[in-house]
Amino acid sequence: MLANLVLHLFILLLFAPLLLGIITKTKAWFAGRVGAPLLQTYYDLNRLWRKGFVFSRTTTWVFLLGPVVGLAVPLLAALMIPFGALPAPVSFEGDLILFVYLFGLSRFFTAAAALDTGSSFEGMGAAREVTFSCLAEPTLLFVLLVLARLSGGLSMNTLLGEHLLASWRSEAGASLTLILVCLFVVLLLECSRIPFDDPTTHLELTMIHEVMVLDHSGPAFGMILYGAALKMMVLGALLVRLAIPWDTGWWLTNSLIFLAGLSVLAVLIGVIESAMARLKLPRVPQVLVGTSLLSIFALVLVLR
Amino acid sequence: MMWLVCGIFLITFAGVPGLFCAREGRGAERLACFLTLIGTASGLAGVTRALLSDGEMIFDLPWSLPGGRLSLCLDPLAAIFILPLLLVVACGSIYGLRYWPQREHPENGRKLRLFYGLISGAMILLLIASNSILFLMAWEVMALSGYFLITTEDHKEDVRRAGFIYLIATHTGTLALFATFALLSQISGSLMFPAAGSLPIAGSGLVFLLGLFGFGMKAGLIPLHIWLPGAHAAAPSHASALLSGVMIKTGIYGLVRLTSMFAEIPHWWGWTILVLGGISGIMGVALALAQHDIKRLLAYHSVENIGIIALGLGLALLGRSYHLPELVALGLAGCLLHVANHGLFKSLLFLSAGSVIHAVGSREIDHYGGLLKRQPWTGALFLGGAVAISGLPPFNGFISEWLIYLGAFLPLRQPSSMLELAVFAAPALALIGGLALACFVKVFGIAFLGEPRTAAATQAHESPVSMLVPMFLLLLACIWIGLLPSTLIPLLSQAVVHWSVASGVAVTTQALTPLNWVSYVSWLLLLLIAVFSLWLYVRSRKSPRTINTWGCGYQFLQPRIQYTSSSFADSLVGLFHFGLLSERHGGKVTGLFPEKIEFSSHTPDLVLDRLLIPLFHAVAGLFRFIRTSVQNGILALYLLYVALAVFTLLAFFTF
């Protein structure tokens, strides 16, 4: 139990920033550049850690609560999700709802911190973030319903348990493919990647997440960056487990398979970012509603 | 039981001595508050004794009215409704001392306190009445006192209008309730409430429909919510807290009590309530998003929360129809806990909104801004309430929604039955949660964060301690339920068993045990947040706050540049345009150097302003037309009517 917890945290805390590096490297490779080193995120975190703070005189304590909750939530949520075949250290009936709502809490405080600066840009970002996320929420629930139906349980460990392999081979495989697509869309949205958001543009009117954190600086910004990396790993773990449901029986190979899966996911995100343009903002809700319909279809397939 | 009855007396008549006191004096309001506090303490003692003695308490007296005995009965089901009620009544009473002091409101302060006491006492009485006549009497006292609370400031036109709509709505509902109880007494053969699960199902469909109409009108289920937004916005804040936090729950109590009486539940009852709950939840929160008036916004959130409660009740009813004790337990426990939770956080929000209105003198969210610096305590308390009502951990709103979610996932284990469709309650709840979060980020962010948008907001001041303490007590109750939900398992499981005889205590307690885990994770979350905050605070303590927010190169930032509440909600309101039909005026920018232009948006109520008022206007027009064509003053026509009537009668009697 304790060893499991330590291993879980070790993988999470150490490897999460690497994913961002892999994405950047993939994009550089597509553009024919050498690109920033793989470990650039670690360097950035280190640099931010040593810096001081710059605060606007408009801000209050809520401004600091944004980064705090943004880091605490993925850390806690990671404890409730299995990393590949490694089971989650914290698991109980109904933890999937807590998992979803924890991210709601972080969204609340990130958006509130953005509004705390009194800047219209950050207001825009906050408004878009809450708008798009609340459209993604039903999709996530439909996905969880499909998984709960296939597993018969209500905890993340059971949902992503060993039955997945058998489910893929049964006629539920079609549903699983559909929800894999839906989850990928949710991941792109929640981690603010193209085609919903562009993490490399700070000063365009179409940005969402980056603009919300425009006024953060120093270690607080480091917390946001690290929190975003952890969040990508946690949401990615959901996808990776779904796509690679094998259990080798040895923790080391399981961890390696998990990390390999995550790297492939990061490369995939990089490819999409290189190949696609960002969507027009009015298109985003349409894509999200379309994804919801897809997930409803997946649910209907397993219910009948 | 004597304690509770004493409490009811004290609370009910707390405002009476004030009627004989001087108009300007301060003694009467203190006496009223004192009596209310004693009354709630006494009531609390009574309820606690009843719960500890592990069963129901009955108080029975012969009665000269027709219809049996004067009979009161306190069971766990009623206790869950009474406990938050007592807290809200006491808090509102203390809050009112400074919020609505007699000195500043000599013309209506006494009236407000009189009816505040009457409505509180009547609500407790109706929750423990077990006789139809007594129930309806208490119901009517509550409804009428509500009218006088809403029209406290009856010199204002919009207040009178809101009160009038409320009066019509509540009496339409009461009419349906008269019919409900008349039919019920025919089925059971007595005016006393029958025991739980004792009535046959035959011929009960009409009873259910009439009850749903009457009780749904009070609860504010869409499309019966027409009176709610106007009324809650018009009343003084602590009265709104009582109306929204507690009074509308009597409608839910009525539905819960009514459905407990029947031995079997037809499938369509559960489906009806489930669908109504989903519609109320989603449309309620969408309408709330479109509001600019903070109290109207909170009122629409009551509609949303009643929707969530109805989702829980619907699941519980389905559980009874399909004989799934676990579904009954989770659905009803979620429903009842959300009743209590909503009472707590909605009162907290109304009281803190009142504190803001008191300080700024406006109900428009766009007139606030930067209030967290000027009202640090009110802001922090409002933030607590906002997180709780958005259903986020570690507060109480999450606990009840979590129970309902778990209930919504259960039908997955019943392959190939109609019941499987009930799983759609889960994504509906997720959408409601997401929208509520957006709405409360908007309110908190626009009102309390950023820069003040008006001169009045710049000069706002913190409210006195006697207004802050009641809010703090309510927040404490929210945190308590959020962090220690397992302390409520015994009460909830007793109530569930009381409602549905078939579910045993063991099944119910079993279904609720994962609550322990939720509470561990919530504690862990708090711990993490505390540690990180402390570290960040210590690290950033010395950094000065001397620069302006970065304006992307623009140097002359003004408060007017900030995002407003309408711009924040605009895209979501646009998505729900099919149901909201918001009106937008102006806002077209033309040319390279545009002139000064104006923009305004307004979202009228879907049912009242779009449907009922035009409909009633049309009906009135039709009647006017009939009158002018039939009764038009031409004598010859009148003679023709007489002749026709005589001929008809002759023809009728001859054949």
TrEMBL record, chain A:
It comes from the Bacteria. The chain crosses the membrane at residues 6-23, 60-84, 96-118, 130-152, 172-189, 224-244, 250-272, 284-303. InterPro entries: ComplexI_Subunit1, NADH_UbQ_OxRdtase_su1/FPO. GO terms for cellular component: plasma membrane. GO terms for molecular function: lyase activity. The keyword Translocase does not apply. Its main location: membrane. Pfam families: NADHdh (PF00146). It is a multi-pass membrane protein. The lineage of its organism: Bacteria, Pseudomonadati, Thermodesulfobacteriota, Desulfuromonadia, Desulfuromonadales. Keywords: Lyase, Membrane, Transmembrane, Transmembrane helix. This is Formate hydrogenlyase subunit 4. It is found in: Membrane.
Automatic annotation (TrEMBL), chain B:
The chain crosses the membrane at residues 31-52, 72-95, 115-142, 163-185, 191-215, 227-248, 268-290, 297-319, 339-360, 381-404, 424-450, 471-497, 517-538, 634-653. GO terms for cellular component: plasma membrane. The keyword DNA-binding does not apply. Residues 129-408 form the NADH:quinone oxidoreductase/Mrp antiporter transmembrane domain. It is a multi-pass membrane protein. Its main location: membrane. GO terms for molecular function: NADH dehydrogenase (ubiquinone) activity; oxidoreductase activity. GO terms for biological process: ATP synthesis coupled electron transport. It is found in: Cell membrane; Membrane. Pfam families: Proton_antipo_M (PF00361). Keywords: Cell membrane, Membrane, Oxidoreductase, Transmembrane, Transmembrane helix. This is NADH:quinone oxidoreductase/Mrp antiporter transmembrane domain-containing protein.
